[in-house]
Design goal:
The strands form three sheets. The chain has a six-stranded parallel beta sheet with strand order 8-7-9-10-6-11, with helices on both faces. The two termini are about 40 Å apart. The longest helix has 22 residues. It has two domains: about 80 residues, 2-Layer Sandwich (Ribosomal Protein S8, Chain: A, domain 1), CATH 3.30.1370; about 210 residues, P-loop containing nucleotide triphosphate hydrolases (Rossmann fold, 3-Layer(aba) Sandwich). It is built from twelve helices and eleven strands. The radius of gyration is 22 Å and the shape is elongated. Helix 2 runs parallel beside helix 4 and helix 6 crosses helix 7. By secondary structure, the chain is of the alpha/beta class.
């Protein structure tokens, strides 16, 4: 049996976006819903074996179209997340807030939270001085922290952005890598640079780094400092020892904010325990400190990543 979904209310660009390159979005939707989906003459033709499947597919498509009209864009991660929560009662506050852009990137594209977990993380960062964001790869915790740091700097809420992470991962020390400190450390910093380049562009990012407005350094370089009027991000915090975590947290100065991100399932430390979950557990009841744990439901990468996280 078939049903038609009229798309005449959408612009050509919106229809093209909904279909995706080489029909990739239509293919994904068809696989998720177990229906056949074809675009023809300003209509989606939905074919299904049962009336229930047909109605489900139509409701889902109407939900996608609603989001497309609101945000003017949709991608495979949006489709996957909407499907994951389709038919379930969602957080009412998230429903109201998810369509409010937190900012615009260097190219003018609006940035929205893609999941309930991301929305709650953004809200927590706005309302706490220190935030622990713990969760698996692909949940956007590091990217969002960098985005919010740049927005805070542009608004004049901080004078400096400090980005740091442990210098040793997977058993490899910086001392054994070629080049100066920046050349040694840069390979570890790709997730941080991604957010900076998206918000500022490569040229402005490098200019602000040269001026010291954006500082990127190994965690060991934080020792003995007090960071005032700064937005400070510690990434890959699962690879900090308890002593390193204490050292980092006590760098907090006046009018500053700290975001600590990490994945407790990817600890590379040997012969010692991680300081991430230890600190988050001990400090969780302090009013100025927030702790959020993202899950596989918040993964916004390829849907296969979520399946991997759930099994391994």
């Amino acid at each position: 049996m078939e049903s038609y979904l009229d798309l005449s209310s959408l612009t050509y660009g919106q229809v093209k976006n909904l279909i995706g390159n080489y029909d990739e979005n239509i293919i994904l939707i068809s696989e998720l819903l177990g229906v056949d989906l074809v675009y023809r003459d300003s209509n989606f033709i939905i074919s299904a074996k049962t009336k229930a499947k047909l109605l489900e597919a139509k409701d889902f498509m109407e939900l996608l179209i609603k989001q497309l009209k609101t945000k003017n864009t949709i991608d495979k991660s949006d489709i996957t997340y909407i499907y994951r929560n389709f038919g379930h009662e969602e957080n009412d506050e998230y429903e109201k807030g998810k369509n409010i852009a937190i900012g615009r990137n260097f190219f003018g594209k609006a940035i929205f939270p893609k999941t309930i977990g991301q929305y709650n993380l953004i809200k927590l960062i706005h309302n706490r001085e220190i935030v622990f964001a713990i969760g698996p790869a692909g949940t956007g915790k590091t990217y969002l922290a960098v985005i919010l740091a740049v927005i805070a700097m542009k608004k004049g809420e901080c004078k400096k952005i400090v980005l740091t992470r442990p210098a040793v991962e997977a058993g490899e020390s910086l001392g054994f890598l070629p080049g100066d400190l920046k050349e040694k450390f840069d390979p570890y910093l790709a997730p941080l640079y991604d957010g900076l380049y998206d918000m500022l562009g490569k040229e402005q990012t490098e200019s602000l780094i040269a001026k010291g407005v954006i500082e990127i350094a190994p965690l060991a370089y934080m020792r003995g400092r007090t960071l005032n009027e700064a937005f400070i991000i510690l990434d890959e915090a699962q690879n900090t020892t308890k002593n390193q975590m204490k050292m980092f947290l006590t760098r907090l100065g006046f009018n500053s904010k700290m975001i600590i991100t990490g994945d407790a399932s990817q600890v590379d430390l040997k012969n010692t325990s991680s300081g991430l979950e230890d600190a988050a557990f001990k400090l969780k009841d302090i009013n100025e400190i927030g702790v959020i744990k993202l899950t596989a439901d918040d993964v916004v990468r390829n849907p296969l990543v979520q399946k991997i996280i759930e099994v391994i």
